[in-house]
Amino acid sequence: METKLSIFEKLLVRLPAARVAALFVFHAVVFSAGYVFAWLLRFEFDLPAEYTSLLKTTLPAVVSVQLLVGVFFGFYRGWWRYVGMADVIRLVFGLTTSLVVLVILWYAGTMFGMPERYIRGSRVVLLIDWAFVLLALFGVRVMIRVGRDRFRPMEVPATVKKVLLIGAGDAGETLAREIEHRPQLGMKVVGFVDDQRAKWGSHIRGIRVYGPIADIPRLADELQADEALIAIPSASGKRIREIIRYLAQADLQFKTIPGIDHLVSGKVHVSQLRPVNVEDLLRRERIQLPGDPVRELFKGKRVLVTGAGGTIGSELASQILQFEPERLALVERSEFALYEVKKRLAREVPWAAAGISGSLIDICDTSIIDALLAREKPQIVLHAAAHKHVPLGEENPGEYLRNNTLATRTLAELSTRHGVERFVFISTDKAINPTSVMGATKRAAEILLLDHARNSRMSVTIVRFGNVIGSSGSVIPLFMEQIAAGGPVTVTHPDVTRYFIRTSEAISLVLQAATLGNGGHVFMLDMGEPIKIVDLARDLIRLSNHTEDEIPVTFTGLRPGEKLFEEIRLEGEEIHPTIHPQIVITEAPQPDPAEIARALDAMRFASDDRVPIEALWKLVGGPPSATLDTARDGLPASQFQPQAV
Question: Of all residues in the chain, what percent carry a pLDDT higher than 70?
Answer without folding.
Answer: 79
